[in-house]
Design goal:
There is one protein chain. The chain is mostly beta strands. It has 2 domains: 2-22 and 205-271, Immunoglobulin-like (Sandwich); 24-202. It has strands spanning 2-5, 12-16, 24-33, 46-48, 55-59, 66-68, 80-84, 98-104, 115-126, 136-138, 142-154, 159-170, 176-182, 188-202, 206-216, 219-227, 232-236, 246-247, 256-260, 266-271. The strands form 4 sheets. Strands 3, 4, 6, 7, 9, 11, 12 and 14 form an 8-stranded antiparallel beta sheet that branches. A 5-stranded mixed beta sheet has the order 1-2-20-17-18, with no helix packed on it. The chain has a 4-stranded antiparallel beta sheet with strand order 5-8-13-10, with no helix packed on it. A hairpin with a 6-residue loop joins β1 and β2. The two termini are 17 Å apart.
Length: 274
Amino acid sequence: MKIKSLAGATAVTVAVFVSLSTSVVGESGHQDWDFTDAGNPAAPTVSSNASGIASAQIGVGYAGLGWQANLTGFGNQNGIWDLGLQNPDDLASDTRGWMLLSIPNPAFAGSTNYTDLVLRAVQFVVDGFIYPGDLTFSLPLGQYVGRTIVESLPGPLGGNWVEDEYRWRVAPSAEQLSLSITGAANGTLIGRIRVDTVGPSTIMPETLVINSIEKRSQVLALGWSGGRPPYGIYMTSNLLSIASWQQVGPLISGTNAEVPLVGTVGFIRVRGAD
């Protein structure tokens, strides 16, 4: 418990009650496709997933060559899917190639918990008209977090074999994750796919910390961070063991509130969801 006096306000004290907690990490899964053959759907070359075997279904688009053991002049990359491109004479139809990854989720822990999904994709990218590397994705319930270039190796045609890392947070978790990857309009060559999933078995709130306290006329403005919504504001006139904490107003989902100042002495606390 932390007790903090408010300067400039007569006998008004803010009592902040906090609980320390951390996230508990649950199961994780890993699957790696090297595409060593033309199998479609393709099973992972390497997999560690207690919930089952993932699969990759591939759809080859317009003018795509499909699976190739290698491509002459495109370096040492083996096991390549040429997904094709958008047919310029049929713009009304989406003729781009695609991959659909179906991944049993060992991190599944119930509808209120989340899973972090990390995709690594190796593709050929040219800084120009062809093979631009503009993949698009669809992951139900997934919030896109960001992209990182892991490695870029020089290749032909002024291009590079690029390994990108993409991240999503899926909340609530699902027992089966379905990640759809759609190729670029001007062609896509995919050389490898890797997917990792990890999630907590229990989501615990961060420490609730009061960041700001300000007296504004007859109200006390509070701002805080951490904890887990909804938040409740409570007030009492003393800190004896028999003190009765009364909720002030309804529960709120935000991280700030204004509390009316009543009486000459009082204590206030902010509490997040259990």
